[in-house]
Fold each of these.
Amino acid sequence: NAGVTQTPKFRVLKTGQSMTLLCAQDMNHEYMYWYRQDPGMGLRLIHYSVGEGTTAKGEVPDGYNVSRLKKQNFLLGLESAAPSQTSVYFCASSRGKMDRDRAVTQYFGPGTRLLVL
Amino acid sequence: ILNVEQSPQSLHVQEGDSTNFTCSFPSSNFYALHWYRWETAKSPEALFVMTLNGDEKKKGRISATLNTKEGYSYLYIKGSQPEDSATYLCASSNAGNNRKLIWGLGTSLAVNP
């Protein structure tokens, strides 16, 4: 199993350009998440999905859109990139079924480093 | 406490030393506490998940404890090795939305050979 993969690994954008980050998982997980990680700040949740066809906002959703058309894929879109979106983006996934004694662990992808000029 | 706080921010120890870090989290409506290990240029990897007050987990030389009443968890590393050098993150979730984790900033550990 590849686990969680992210495409691309690195990208440079100009202000105003758009792009889509792809996250794929082969663990049949129900839940998927997009985070950004910036120096001096903890991982911040952008959007997440509790299942195919559903998405929800996290802490910092502005400027981003997401889609979960297939269970294994979670796409993060930047419609008009801004320098403030320069960051490292991590995707994670977790299984759906959960009980009190086995709270869900999130499995992370390798990250996408994005630079917006 | 509204956020997850970790201390110290960074730590330098010698090979063979034992060490520990602290994670403080909101105790009200608590659901779970997670510890992750994050090596430079890699992605975070899960170490432990704990849900019950008094939980203790162990993996090799690393162990963790949980106090949900006062809202803290300790991570212990016995006999630190250079390969233990990493940032150790903790994250908590509450019963209101147990899928969303609140992350601390991490403790950066450097083990000198």
Amino acid sequence: DQQVKQNSPSLSVQEGRISILNCDYTNSMFDYFLWYKKYPAEGPTFLISISSIKDKNEDGRFTVFLNKSAKHLSLHIVPSQPGDSAVYFCAASRNGSSNTGKLIFGQGTTLQVKP
Amino acid sequence: KAGVTQTPRYLIKTRGQQVTLSCSPISGHRSVSWYQQTPGQGLQFLFEYFSETQRNKGNFPGRFSGRQFSNSRSEMNVSTLELGDSALYLCASSFRGPGGGSSKSGANVLTFGAGSRLTVL
């Protein structure tokens, strides 16, 4: 049972344009959502997170939007840069377990930003 | 501050063998989690250790086990290896102090190591 889904395996955008990565989830008990970025031969690195009581969180070029009624979140990168080319993972943690090391990850979306 | 260190980085084993992977967390981090990454499956949670105790466990068979030492370093072991165990095994650490998470939103941020790439032949 895939509780967190990233239905687009890959995305290609032009440098300077907006990149939108999507993520859907099924479990309404999730209370935090996180995005990680992974380069080849490296571990995932934390990008940005959002609490389920918020609908938007912004950090520089990165903004995460949460639509609880649709059980959908998205990561916007504006403007996209070639260095953003990586695999992006959406992850979620369960209600009442904000300090847990257990995250449920999506399958990942490979972003390619073309110069 | 040194990051999460995993050893070995690469290893090749044959079916039926067993393997032990090691993880040294960031200094001061008390929680260590293990994940398996395979193509198309994303990262699958294996287990989490905190203060030498297993606190969470994923849906993996008993061939997968782990432990944590008093200095927070952790090891995971896979016995009777199968071809399907070929994967990248990632270790992550977090402070997991009282009051919850370490990000601005309150989420608990895991810091991952570079992983141990296991190939089973």
